[in-house]
Amino acid sequence: MKKWQGASAICINKFGELLMVLQGKPEEEKLWASPSGGKELGETFEECCIREVFEETGYIVEIVEKLQVKQNDFVEVHYFLVEIIGGELKIQDPDQLIYDISWKSVDEIKTLPLSFPEDRYYLMECMVNYENLTRG
Asked: What start and end residues bound the annotated signal peptide (predicted)?
């Protein structure tokens, strides 16, 4: 079985809020996640991250730094801290799996129904430590 590979964007605004998308297949419960998706053939993880943010939110971002890689036997996800450099907030997902886009506070992340609940504490840690992340 081939390992699924993708990228996820950690985008935090000046108020310390995290960019999140409400997603799911039409028949599924809709859950929140950071903008993310699968890597296409010939694409780097960085290119995947930038493309997914644009497709899911309308924002143009640049990579600030690579944060971590989450992997097991089936999945490999590269997490990147990103910064918005253009675009405008709008759903334009070609897969039509995005239902809402919102900036969420740490308190909201604590109880938000997440697509990847195992990421909850990591997302909150990124938000709390955002100033340290951007200063290196």
From this structure: none
